[in-house]
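User: I'm curious whether this sequence folds into something compact or stays loose and floppy. Could you predict its structure so I can see for myself?
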Amino acid sequence: MVRTLVNKPQPLEAHFAQERDRVQAAFGARLREFRVARQLTLEMLADRAGLHPNYVGAVERGERNLSLYNVWRLAHGLDLNAAELLQALPARKTPRS
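Assistant: Here's the prediction. I'll summarize afterward.
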């Protein structure tokens, strides 16, 4: 029997990693659309959300798997509710078990 440590993150299987990357890229694109539409720089949004500009840039590029708390902070920085940022996420392609 293989023992899994609870506090140590396990690597995702390839298809789950691809799905995660697709969702992160879609979220980042949506975030950038809202930021540009409001004529905010990365630095301005980061300041309004209480986050580092490098972190916001990485989210926009789809490089970060952000927490729900940070989604909420970014939405607040854009004067949105979190649901508006999440609306454009792609449908899940993998079948449910």
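Summary: The helical segments are 14-37, 42-49, 53-60, 68-77, 82-86. The two ends are 23 Å apart (CA to CA).
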